[in-house]
Design goal:
About 30% of the residues lie in helices and about 30% in strands. It is of the alpha/beta class and about 325 residues long.
Length: about 325
């Protein structure tokens, strides 16, 4: 997959099969669009093109400065690449670009810039200034500009329409199993292992403290989780805690992300680590003593091992 910083770097194609959107999370609804994109391209000997935007429009337009993302751009590139797309165009989203009318977008980007022959969009896709463009608007222009447009119906799971917003809300409630179902893969955090106070070692559960790579990344709710860990090419099982550590950190509470890797010994300070969330074990709580905390950690370990050994565990 070739990545372009703007349409200016892109060389117009003769048979481009195109989709456009933010695609935060690249969830199962997005995947339905990408699979259809590939199917059309294979049937028509075309090339797939995905247009996406960075930063997230809601961050630029000020509609929600506090929004946290399911995937930062580097993560999105890896997810798109899994689908075998041919071209990825990143458009730098600015307030000036947001003023582009739907007609200008169709003419300058879709037609003259890319050479769109088929456009595939999601059921709720809007584009152009003030989101004035729609499937109906695209359909009206399709014949004029010589391309076809196809709308993909919403993806539902248990009769609930999947969306990035719903996934964010489930993550903030600790409902990892629902989020993963909607994403089609385990929710991930990527970061670097940094020094902590090494309290876990004294409790018999040494932990690696994780500094997440991007401040824009959504952190799930406080609690203990069963997780899978990747360090380089090696994979491990473990349990992770997100929270303020109320039992031991009452004077200067700060959120920490700490992972205990099962059956692991070694120095990984400064190394990059990937955490795949599988399921919430319990919400964060304050214990009466360190002994009570230690006993709970032993129970958490058994819970995590049981979850991670489930026969129907499907990891992508």
């Amino acid at each position: 997959m070739k990545v372009y910083n703007g349409v200016e770097e892109f060389e117009k194609l003769t048979n481009a099969v195109v989709t456009s959107g933010t695609f935060d999370g690249v969830h199962v609804g997005h995947q339905k669009i990408l699979n259809r994109l590939k199917s059309i391209a294979n049937a028509t000997n075309g090339e797939t093109v995905l247009i996406t935007y960075w930063p997230h429009p809601r961050l630029v337009l000020g509609s929600d400065q506090s929004i946290k993302l399911l995937t930062v751009f580097e993560e999105r590139i890896k997810l798109f690449d899994r689908f075998g797309l041919d071209h990825l165009i990143k458009i730098h989203f600015t307030k000036e670009f947001s003023k582009t009318s739907s007609q200008e977008f169709i003419k300058n980007i879709l037609v003259q810039g890319i050479g769109t022959r088929t456009l595939v969009i999601g059921y709720d896709h809007k584009f152009g200034h003030n989101r004035e463009g729609s499937f109906e608007a695209l359909s009206l222009n399709a014949h004029t500009y010589g391309f076809e447009v196809e709308e993909i119906p919403k993806q539902e799971i248990d009769h609930i329409a999947v969306s990035s917003t719903k996934i964010r809300n489930h993550l903030l409630n600790g409902e990892i199993h629902i989020s993963n179902q909607y994403l089609g893969y385990p929710y991930c955090l990527h970061g670097k292992v940094v020094k902590g106070n090494q309290l876990g070692r004294t409790l018999g559960f040494p932990t690696a403290n994780i500094q997440v790579n991007s401040e824009l990344k959504l952190i799930p709710s406080s609690g203990s989780y069963a997780v899978l860990i990747e360090i380089g090419t090696q994979g491990y099982k473990g349990m992770l805690n997100i929270g303020m550590r109320p039992t031991v950190n009452q004077e200067d509470p700060k959120q920490t992300i700490e992972v205990h890797i099962f059956n692991f010994e070694g120095n990984i300070y400064g190394k990059e680590i990937t955490i795949k969330f599988i399921k919430l074990i319990r919400k964060e709580e304050k214990f009466e003593s360190l002994e009570a905390l230690k006993a709970q950690l032993a129970q958490d370990e058994q819970s995590a091992l049981h979850i991670l050994s489930a026969s129907d565990l499907n990891i992508v």
